[in-house]
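Q: Thioredoxin domain-containing protein, please. Structure only.
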Amino acid sequence: MILRSAKPLSCGLFLRIPQAHRRFFNAATKQNRIFNNIRTPDELHNLTLVSAADNRPLITLWSASWCTTCQTVKPIVKSLIEDEKVGEQEGGLGYAEVELDSTLIGDLGVKFMITSMPTLLAFSRQEAQLETKLVRPEQMKDRNFLRQWLLTEARRGGRAGGAGGSLFGGLFGGS
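A: Structure for Thioredoxin domain-containing protein:
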């Protein structure tokens, strides 16, 4: 019995995947990934590279250890991504916290226009999605609002879309 999903193997043979098992090989469903905290610009750069290569948006929570609101928001975001697996059906999300009080962080906050803490900023294809960043704590504390925001970022699937990371991205079709 030959199925339409037969795929050639390197030796010229065909692999036959029964219909019932094909969904397990679907690239659209990826597990969410939780990364270590970011303390340097190089660590952020490396994670955006990894996420871009995997077509998986990277969600970053910009916070500081002394920020009490950040400490309230952090478990909510992490729970939605890690425990409830929000975004996995849409292709998965990466998540990392950026420690703005790290002595090695440099001017990353200025570069990405982080003007308050906490801030949630998504990266797609290494581009900061500045138009969709969340800065209002009441939105981040609202699980339903936050779930919808995460789903929207996950549906982007590593593609730009929130005006990208450049000033002129939306004006000249940059993506």
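A: Brief note, in case it's useful. Residues 1-7, 9-15, 19-27, 162-175 have pLDDT under 50 and may be disordered.
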